[in-house]
Amino acid sequence: QTNRDRKDPQPALEEAMALAHALPGLEVVGGEVVRLPKAHPGQLFGSGKLEELRQRLTDQEIGLVLIDGPVSPVQQRNLEKAWKTKLLDRTGLILEIFSDRARTREGVLQVEMAALSYQRTRLVRAWTHLERQRGGLGFVGGPGETQIEADRRAIDEQLTRLRRQLAKVVKTRELHRAARAKVPFPIIALVGYTNAGKSTLFNRLTGADVMAKDMLFATLDPTMRAVDLPSGRRVILSDTVGFISSLPTQLVAAFRATLEEVLAADLILHVRDISHDETEAQDADVRRILSDLGVDENTRVIEVWNKVDLLAEEEQLALIRQAERREDVVVVSALTGLGVEALLAEAEHTLDEVRMRKELILS
Ligand code: GDP
Q1: 314 CA distance to ligand 1 centroid (A)?
Q2: Nearest-CA neighbor of 93 among 75, 66, 120, 64?
Q3: Residue 85 is part of which domain span?
Q4: How many whole angstroms from 53 Cα to the centroid of ligand 1?
Q5: Which residues line ligand 1 (CB under 6 A)?
Q6: Is 214 in the same domain as 250?
Q7: In a domain, 238, yes or no
Q8: Dist. CA 278–CA 306, nearest whole Å
Q9: What is the DSSP string of 61-121?
Q10: Which of 63, 107, 172, 274 is a Cys-bridge partner for 305, taking CB atoms 3.0 to 4.6 Å apart?
Q11: 1 occurs within a structural domain
Q12: Is 4 inside a domain boundary?
């Protein structure tokens, strides 16, 4: 972060680390706020900081560095060379997560398009930088404006192809949805901001579940798990990609598309970090996105007010009283397990209602 970001950087760092956790196969060893009085154009950090970080990265045998902000292609190249690590900036990381999470054909296409548009802007910046350098040194020749043009055209052609494919896919979306409806068990989808506690809750709900090893589900995708509710009823729990504050605009469409599977859910658990300063604004964001996605009033949503353990006792009591007045709210701590039984009972109850309504419609 640079000094222009006056706000407390700690929550941003925590969100970035939660994002990193969302990428399978990464072991996140630490995170740190580095104050940059002025970003160095070629290497982001000043030479002293660069060397200090190099030393630590080498000592800890770090293979990947994530920088929560924009890093220019030139900076990226230089840092990777100096540190002998791979490097991703914020947009790069989010693209990786989306591409890992994309399930539907539409999602895959949207992520590909976002990645290409991202590459396109980087291509231009990389070249213009090189051109400037070359100009300064008085070089002639080499890949010039025509090369950038050619690369840009190649990307544009691919984007056009993808856009055409996407249009076809959207037309058959209804068919996809019908296919998903064939899953023989009700689907419960977890949604919410990154860091709200979705994975913790997902693991708590599925952790003790021996059925996860069941052959039937061995091939099910890793973000879906079979869970048996207290009554013995089996459901599929689906963990979605987390919502993120200040999502780069190029990624918005890809984000929506990776959330498509939420539309197939019989019940949505909206996990909220109720201890977060901006919990109300986050709630409004999530509602807007769900409604934009096409989640209508026929889909039942339970609000899971998570992380109550972080609040003072009287605040907890006030929340519990508030929740009691509403039918669609359960107060929990995914960390301590408080309220999780009540959540399961509420989920059962809601699924019963959903089933009854479905039967009414069918008969
Ligand atoms: P996700 O991004 O929504 O999947 O969030 P995670 O499950 O990764 O949780 C983000 C952070 O919040 C982790 O450090 C969790 O340990 C922590 N966390 C999750 N649930 C709770 C909770 O109920 N209480 C407290 N104190 N921390 C929690």
Answers
A1: 22
A2: 66
A3: 10-97
A4: 28
A5: 18, 21, 192, 194-200, 242, 306-307, 309-310, 333-335
A6: yes
A7: yes
A8: 14
A9: T--EEEESS---HHHHHHHHHHHTSEEEEHHHHHHHHHHHH--SHHHHHHHHHHHHHHHHH
A10: 274
A11: no
A12: no
Cα(206) to ligand 1 centroid in Å equals: 16
In tens digits, what is the pLDDT along the chain, a chain of 363 residues? 444 455 678 888 888 888 888 887 889 999 999 888 888 889 999 999 999 999 999 999 999 999 998 898 889 889 999 999 999 998 999 998 888 888 778 888 999 999 998 888 777 555 555 454 544 443 444 555 677 788 889 999 999 999 999 988 877 766 666 665 566 788 899 999 988 998 889 888 886 443 444 444 444 455 778 888 888 888 988 888 888 877 877 788 888 888 877 888 899 999 999 999 889 999 998 998 888 888 887 789 999 999 999 999 999 999 999 999 998 999 999 999 999 999 999 999 999 988 888 777 766
Residue 70 inside a domain? The answer is: yes
Same domain, 76 and 16: yes
Mutational pocket test of ligand 1: of 97, 101, 194, 195, the residue with most ligand atoms within 8 Å of the beta carbon:
195
**Residue 352 CA from chain centroid, whole number:** 30
**Do residue 81 and residue 150 come from a single domain?**
no
290 and 220 in one domain? yes
Q: Which among 200, 243, 275, 276 is the best mutation to test ligand 1's pocket, defined by most ligand atoms within 8 Å of the CB?
A: 200
Length of the chain: 363
Q: Residues 129, 132, 133, CA angle at the centre, nearest 5°?
A: 90
**Domain count within the chain:** 3
Distance CA 290, CA 260 (A): 10
Last residue of a domain, one of 97, 112, 130: 97
Specify the CATH number for the domain of residue 333: 3.40.50.300
- pTM, entire model: 0.79
Residue that finishes a domain, picked among 59, 80, 97: 97
d(CA 258, CA 260): 5
In a shared domain, residues 149 and 37: no
Q: Look up the CATH number of the domain holding residue 19.
A: 3.40.50.11060
Q: Are residues 36 and 86 in the same domain?
A: yes
Task: Clarify whether residues 167 and 239 are in a common domain.
Answer: no
Q: Are residues 312 and 294 in the same domain?
A: yes
Residue 304, token pair as written in the block: 């899971």
